[in-house]
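Example record used in the benchmark description.
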Amino acid sequence: MNRTIMPKGHTSLTPHDGRADPFFALQRGINRMFDDLWHGFDAPTVFAGHRFPSLEIHDEEKSVKVIAELAGLDDKDVELGLKDGILTLKGQKIQEKADRGVVSERWYGQFERSIAVGEVDEAAAEAKFENGVLTVTLPKTEKPKDAGRKIPISGK
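Model output (structure tokens):
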């Protein structure tokens, strides 16, 4: 007697990831489209659970240094702005020609990050882009060493 525990109509319980399924690519494309759409509404750019681009912020004695990983981008793909103590980093990673049937886990699209850097000398800010790493150096402004003053309060 040949009995099987497989439900009728099923041939395998082996999980598959759907990469051979034509609807898998369609679903990925739709997901990516909606991800890009929502990023247009000031949502932080997130890829694989992490904000993009990845940053390091160093608060040094005389400057603030911001380091951003931007692999796959050139300096012309990135725009920096600094206003009222807020450093804004934005840009776009454009997808190269995609081959049919290839699975891509790379991230493409627009990104924007805003970082509060405090009181810095905007005119002396410098940025360098080398090997996919952007380094922004922002010299701190000299704070007055005045201890302040008491303000008398007058009453009736």
